[in-house]
Design a protein that fits this description.
By secondary structure, this protein is α+β, with helices and mostly antiparallel strands. The protein is 43% helix and 17% strand. It has a single domain, classed as Nucleotidyltransferase, domain 5, CATH 3.30.420.10. The termini are far apart.
């Protein structure tokens, strides 16, 4: 067997709310280590642009989710891919957000506990019908069985709330430090938690950065990271001395050509959206009539100006709420 691994984030650009970064690893037959998982799993998933025939969609989260189109497709794919079993989703009880979140990001509890807006009580699924979710999970499972792909995808996330985002940014005077921090943690976790079989990472490019050897060296302590290619269109590395053969490719729009990256993008977006619902609910309670925000530049300033008086009453500082970069 071999691992096809993807890493992507959601929420790097906003001034408000958390950043979420996720790794997804799919265990595939050794002879499918170069396979297109969309094609391999086509009986259970579809790409963006394919006819909606009930199969869950796996694509860049920006193509799957938008405020006008709603959360349903994003939620269905993410919860089905993460292995919410049909008996569970048919129960009358819902899954609290905190259960899912701390399963995917055990280290997030301390940071989120310090956020006044976080409750973790949001019931999941929020909009997707439980029968639709059960059917989607069944489709993915059957497709994996037919292709010899492990039914349970490995998934871990890093949640970076505003205080830590600002602190990491200050250390390097660049918010790129936040992506480096997340990538190192996720790669280490993925390697530690999975069987020692050949592993190929595809990672969405960090802005205009082309050189990643030093960062990857932190992710593989004791191993040697060899640069094979570094440029605007692609940076490729091999890792010598790890417990398995490892290749890492970092490229722009990795979510277009790599199934695990697209799914990592969707998981990151879904977690961020659920967290932003709690963020908006908290501030809407303290500022009646306040229109919700996605936290992106422009609208974030409108929202931040509106909550300043409430922040003063709650003794909250700008450092706790507003990302400086």
């Amino acid at each position: 067997m071999a691992w096809l691994v993807g890493i992507d984030e959601a929420g790097y650009g906003p001034n408000l709310g958390p950043l979420v970064m996720t790794v997804v690893a799919c265990q595939v037959p050794a002879d499918a280590a170069e396979a297109d998982l969309w094609r391999l799993l086509r009986s259970g998933v579809r790409r963006h642009g394919a006819r909606d025939d009930g199969r869950p969609i796996v694509a860049d989260s920006k193509l799957v989710y938008s405020a006008p189109n709603g959360l349903s497709h994003l939620e269905k794919t993410v919860l089905a891919a993460l292995g919410i079993d049909p008996p569970t989703v048919e129960d009358t009880e819902s899954l609290p957000l905190e259960n899912l979140l701390f399963q995917l990001s055990p280290d997030a509890s301390d940071d989120l506990a310090a956020e006044a807006w976080f409750t973790g009580k949001t019931p999941l699924p929020m909009v997707c019908g439980k029968s639709a979710l059960s059917m989607a999970r069944g489709l993915i499972r059957r497709a994996c069985r037919r292709a010899g792909v492990a039914e349970q995808f490995y998934c871990r996330s890093v949640v970076v709330c505003t205080p830590r985002f600002n602190a990491l940014t200050d250390t390097c005077d660049s918010k790129g430090a936040v992506l480096s921090h997340g990538l190192v943690r996720l790669v280490r976790a993925c390697v530690a938690d999975t069987a020692a079989e050949p592993m190929a990472f595809a990672i969405d490019k960090h802005g205009g950065r082309n050189h990643y050897a030093e960062m990857l060296g932190e992710a593989f302590p004791g191993a040697q990271v060899r640069s094979c290619e570094e440029g605007m269109e692609r940076s490729a590395y091999k890792v010598d001395g790890a417990d398995r053969p490892v290749r890492v490719t970092i490229l722009p729009r990795a979510d277009v050509g790599h199934f695990p990256v697209a799914l990592a993008s969707m998981v990151s977006k879904y977690l961020r959206e659920t967290l932003m619902r709690e963020f908006n609910a908290f501030w809407g309670h303290h500022v009646p009539g306040l229109r919700p925000t996605a936290g992106y530049p422009g609208d974030a300033s409108r929202f931040f100006d509106a909550i300043r008086p409430a922040m003063t009453l709650l003794k909250m500082t700008e450092q706790q709420v507003w990302r400086r970069k």
